[in-house]
Write a structure and sequence with these properties.
A 7-stranded mixed beta sheet has the order 3-2-1-4-5-7-6, sandwiched between helices. The chain is α/β, with parallel strands linked by helices. It has one domain (31-177): Vaccinia Virus protein VP39 (Rossmann fold). The protein contains 5 helices and 7 strands; from the N terminus they run αβαβαβαβαβββ. It starts with 26 loop residues before the first helix and ends with a strand.
Amino acid sequence: MRIIGGKFKGRRFNPPADSWPTRPTTDMAKEALFNILNNLIDFESAKVLDLFGGTGSHSYEFISRGCNDVTYVDKFPDAVRFVRKTAQQLDIEEQLKIFQMDVFRFIRFAKEPFDYIFAGPPYGLPTIDTIPDLIFEHELLRPEGIFVLEHNPHHDFLQHPHLSDVRKYGKTIFSFFS
């Protein structure tokens, strides 16, 4: 895995994730997503939330591009340890808030809205379809913000009132909500 752009561009990191319950976004899909986001987000002023953060790939990408306020949430202890270690190695501990907890619990108790939210849940998670409604119900997205949910073809949000775009990269689908 590698960081696609910004000051850490090209930097590789290899999480010991063979037995992790995570599914990192492919570099190709991540690069396509960030090509879209480059035109939609002011990275330096954005307040970012990375749900089901796994290896931290999206968090590192935002910080590499100048974001100074990223919140990472994942409940898997090994992933959280890896992200803490990587944040220390990259010297980005000031920009990255790390929460080891259940994402749904975080959503219920979060106190502030975000400019950009990314959720990359495990594809087998039975409650994927509830995530967009929870984000809006708990007012986690600022009025001009963007929420991106990564999912597979087994999920369809075309009827969701906040859906604004859908991008497909093989079996990886990014649904954009605003």
